[in-house]
Amino acid sequence: MLPRRPSALFRSRWAALLWAAGVLWTAVSVAGVGKVPAAASAENATDALGQPIDNADLELLRNVIGG
Predict the structure, then answer these.
(1) Residue-by-residue pLDDT tens, the chain, 67 positions
(2) Which is it for the CA torsion 5, 7, 11, 12, positive or negative?
(3) What's this model's pTM, rounded to 2 decimal places?
């Protein structure tokens, strides 16, 4: 993705912006944007291990954070 002489690329702001836009476009087209998950309700929320989260867990977390 780098040109033959990278120093020449950054002599012009516009060339650098176009190059950066190309890099970002390539990253999005390769990796994709993905779905934005809908806000999970408390009824079906799970932790990293897949265990359901209850109000006691949330209260403990609130106390640890200091809120």
Answers:
(1) 666 777 777 788 988 899 899 999 999 888 887 765 665 555 677 888 888 888 888 888 889 988 6
(2) positive
(3) 0.44
